[in-house]
Amino acid sequence: MFQHHQNPPAPPKRVVVLGAGGFVAAALIGHLARAGFSVKAIGRDKIDLAAPEAAAQLAAELEPGDALVFLSAITPDKGRGIDAFLANVRMGAAVCAAIEAKPPSQVVYFSTDAVYPFVEGQTSEATPTAPADLYGAAHLSREIMLKGTVKCPLAILRPTLIYGAGDTHNSYGANRFRRMARKEGKITLFGGGEEMRDHIYIDDVVLLIDLVLRHRSSGTLGLVTGRSIAFADLAKMVAAQFADPVEIVNLPRQMPVTYRHYDATELSRAFPDFRATPLEQGISIAHRSGD
C-alpha cells in the first residue's frame, strides 16, 4: 500500500534529481523550482551513472536530508538490447552504492509500466510483474535493487504513456503524432490503431512527484488516469488540432494487437484531490506549444 510519512506535507530540505537532461526531469526541475523547492540537478554531463566511478561521485554530491529522485535511464529510443539493459543495471548499482554511503531522507524511483504484462481486464499495483522486454526487466531489476538497499521511505512510480511539450523520446503516441502532423501533414498508425493505452499529461506527472516528495511517501504507485483510448482515436484527436486536413495512414501490422487498461483506485486513495488533465485539454495545450 502507498503510504505517507509526513503530515502536514512539506518540501524536503533539498531534492537531488538524477537524469537532468530527460523529458520528465526537465519538467520536474522547472516545476519544483517554481514551487520553492531547493533543487540540485545532476545529468550525464556531470555524472555518468553507468561509469565505474559513478557511485563515489554521486555519494560526494549527497547531503543529509536530501530526497533523491532517480529518473536516469537509457530509454527504448536510445537502445533496447543487452547493452542498454546492462547499462541500466549498472546505473542502479551505482545509485544503490551511493545511497548506502550517504543515506537520503527519501528515494523516489521513476520506473515504467513495462514491468507489467499485457493482461485482460485492468492492471493495478497488485498485478504481478512480468516484463516482456529488456527495458522492463532493467527497471524491475533496479526496483528490486533499491528495495534491498534503501532504508528510508522508497516510492516506486510506474507511469503509463506520458505526453506533452518537450518530449525527448518521440515514442509512438500523442507526441509523435503531433510532430508528424505538423511536419508531414499525416499521421502513420500501425495496423488500424486498435490498441488501447492510457496517456498522462507531463504536468500531472510532475505534480504527482511533487506530492510524493511533500508527503515523503513510500510504496508502489501507478501514474495513470484510468482512461484508455485507441491510437486511432488519439490520432483523430491530434489531427483535429490543425487547421489544414491531416491524413491518417494505416501501415501493415507487424505485432499482435495489445491493450492496457488501468485501475486508478490506489492513486485516488493516495491523493484524493488530484484530478488528471483531460486528454483533449492536454493535447490542445501541447499543440499550442508549437513543439
Helix content: 25-40%
Total number of helices: 9
Terminal CA distance reads 38 Å
- Rg for CA atoms: 19 Å
Rough outline:
globular
Low-confidence stretches: none
Order of helices and strands: EHEHEHEEHEEHEEHEEHEEHH
Biggest sheet character? 6 strands, parallel
Task: Tell me the structural class.
Answer: alpha/beta
Number of strands: 13
The spatial strand order of the largest sheet comes to: 2-1-3-4-6-10
Topology:
Layout: E1 14-18, H1 23-34, E2 39-42, H2 54-61, E3 66-70, H3 82-101, E4 106-110, E5 122-123, H4 134-149, E6 154-159, E7 161-163, H5 174-184, E8 186-190, E9 196-201, H6 202-215, E10 219-223, E11 228-230, H7 231-239, E12 247-251, E13 261-262, H8 265-270, H9 279-288
Parallel strand pairs: 1-2, 1-3, 3-4, 4-6, 5-13, 6-10, 7-9, 8-12
Antiparallel strand pairs: 9-11
Helix pairs in contact: 1-6, 2-3, 3-4, 5-7
